[in-house]
Structure formats: C-alpha cells, structure tokens
Design goal:
Order of helices and strands: HEEHH
Structural class: alpha+beta
Number of domains: 1
Low-confidence stretches: none
Largest sheet: 2 strands, antiparallel
Strand content: 15-25%
Radius of gyration: 20 Å
Strand order of the largest sheet: 1-2
Number of helices: 3
Helix content: 40-55%
Number of strands: 2
Length: 67
C-alpha cells in the first residue's frame, strides 16, 4: 500500500497505472503514470529526432541509389 502522503504528492488515485522499474542499486521504483508524467515524456520526445521522417528519407534515398 502506498502511504497517503506519497499518493497526494504524486497524484496517485485509485486506478492510477504504475510502472515498476529497477534502479542501478537493485531497488524497485514505482513510477505513477499520470498526465504530468505523460506530458514530460511527450515533451522529451518532441525535442528529439523525428524517427519516422528519418526512416522515410533513408528509404527514399535507398531507392535512388544505383546498384
């Protein structure tokens, strides 16, 4: 059971999905999957490379190369 103080602090409510991770020390870390968490993850991805666009460009480039 997650203590009430931590549930309030991290927005964990009944039905909140969680992700279990293991850190470098072998400890189990519980990551609540909240809207805030999803927004942070999406923000990180938005700043990264557009993987689909890169793949499409590479695919087009392969088609124009001579054998």
């Amino acid at each position: 059971m997650v203590p009430a103080e931590l549930r309030r602090k991290h927005g964990i409510q009944a039905g909140t999905r969680v992700k279990f991770l293991e850190d470098q020390f072998g400890r189990i870390v519980l990551q609540p999957i909240t809207e805030e968490y999803i927004d942070r993850v999406m923000g990180c991805l938005a700043e990264g490379a557009d993987l689909l666009a890169n793949w499409e460009k590479e695919h087009r480039d392969e088609g124009t190369r001579e054998p």
